[in-house]
Write a structure and sequence with these properties.
Length: 144
């Protein structure tokens, strides 16, 4: 009987340690993805997206970015050389509450006709992923 109790405790300990190991692996992978996304966004933010004398070409352009939990895809509609609409096509890995906060940037982007807006505090990775997707689409729409 004593041995059975010890075996159960040992197996429980192994399960706990195994679970912690899996958690650490997942956390490390997510941290690596976030760091890569942040580095990519920083590079994107530091280069001009639209030269002063450039005009966006009319059309619908698709862009993709990486948010907190996965890919974010958008369509950006350009009309008369200006950003007319931004439609989110996919945000499957994002937490809905945080992503709703990030989507608040869209009106500011349309109003300013440029993706140079502040990210949303509390929704940083979703905001950065959304901006990355919008910038990706706008790069296709720039006419020099």
């Amino acid at each position: 009987m004593k041995n059975t109790g010890m075996v159960i405790k040992f197996i429980s300990l192994l399960l706990i340690l195994g679970s912690l190991g899996v958690y650490q692996t997942i956390a490390a992978a997510r941290a690596e993805q976030r760091a890569a996304t942040a580095a990519q966004i920083k590079v994107t933010e530091n280069r001009p997206e639209k030269p002063a004398d450039a005009k966006y070409l009319d059309g619908v352009y698709e862009g993709e970015g990486f948010g907190f939990g996965g890919d974010i895809r958008v369509n950006v509609t350009i009309k008369d050389g200006n950003i007319h609409a931004i439609d989110v096509l996919e945000h499957s890995g994002e937490d809905d509450e945080y992503f709703r906060l990030a989507v608040g940037m869209i009106d500011k982007i349309i109003e300013s006709n440029h993706p140079d807006v502040d990210t949303v505090t509390g929704s940083t990775f979703s905001s950065q992923g959304l901006l990355e997707a919008i910038r990706s689409a706008l790069e296709k729409a720039v006419k020099s």
